[in-house]
TrEMBL record:
Source species: Buteo japonicus
Family matches, as Pfam families: DUF1242
Protein name per Swiss-Prot or TrEMBL: Protein kish
Keyword DNA repair tagged: no
Similarity remark: Belongs to the KISH family.
Record's keyword terms, sorted: Golgi apparatus, Membrane, Signal, Transmembrane, Transmembrane helix
Signal peptide: none
Length: 70
């Protein structure tokens, strides 16, 4: 396990949850709970929606790091 793997996982979680928040049926099913284990997905979706520019820049930088530097 490494820090960059954890960062990739976190970015993918935030991006996926933000995308799923735009789908009405999945939003009602997956992102309706705001507490507990399912609340993590809700909070990731909120972060991805509100900080979409920062998340997008982070994804591009992480992709460059994984593909070129590493």
């Amino acid at each position: 396990y490494s820090l960059d793997g954890l960062l990739v996982f976190g970015l993918l979680l935030v991006c996926t949850c933000a995308y799923l928040r735009k789908v009405p049926r999945l939003k009602a099913w997956l992102l309706s709970e705001k507490r507990g284990v399912w609340g993590v997905f809700y909070k990731a979706a909120v972060i991805g929606t509100r900080l979409h520019v920062a998340v997008a820049v982070s994804c591009v930088l992480m992709a460059f790091y994984v593909l070129v530097v590493k």
